Amino acid sequence: MRFMFVGDSMTIGRAGDYTWRYRMWQHLNASFGGPYKIVGPRTEVYDTFADAPVSHEYADPGFPENARRHLAGWGEGWQHMAPLIGETVRAHKPDVLLISLGLIDLGFYTDADATAANARRFVAEARAVRPNIRMVMLPVIPNVRAESDSPFAAQCARFNELLAKAVADLSEPASPLLLAARPQDYDIHHDTYDGTHPNASGEHRIAGEFAAVLHQAWDLGTPYDPAR
Questions:
Q1: Domain 27-35+78-218 fold
Q2: Which residues neighbour 131 within 8 Å (Cβ) at sequence distance 6 or greater?
Q3: Domain residue spans of the chain
Q4: Which end of the chain has fewer CB atoms surrounding its CB within 10 Å, N or C?
């Protein structure tokens, strides 16, 4: 089984972060019960001083390089990943995509309807290369901006509705799509370091929702244990 993480700044992480990808790697190691591989074209985290994804300084230097692989980018959203996903799937042959995208799109690039259209294009591009690919998508977690910007908050809510509809419309028996839940009790004032990006507790909560879907829907792994 080959997993690939797809996401924006919340997924790539910055220098010094563990990242929720690391938490999922720990979970898969402890619970998957069979061979698996994490795949993707990138391994870096974002360096705030260089303003570029050029760092390899994860919080745990023992995080193996082959488990650091991903398709995530600081400032990249559905509109950036949709044109990349076909060639990436062809090159790395993932079986399951674990996707956390949308907040950066809504904050800087596209409205909810256009963002949802890009999500649908992403699905089509991935399936065109690998028709039996599975995907798990995380809804947008509104960040601190949504507390003071009601139109932005409304766009986040609308996109999540459209994403749920896209998952329902596009899921197929041979290529199922699943929508993860918003992480239970996620609080941007306690689970992020800046109102957007997850700290250690936020990383565990995000990883926990992906793990819950894999376990409940496809019997992959076990329930998530943040003590790992």
A1: Rossmann fold (3.40.50)
A2: 174, 175
A3: 27-35+78-218
A4: C
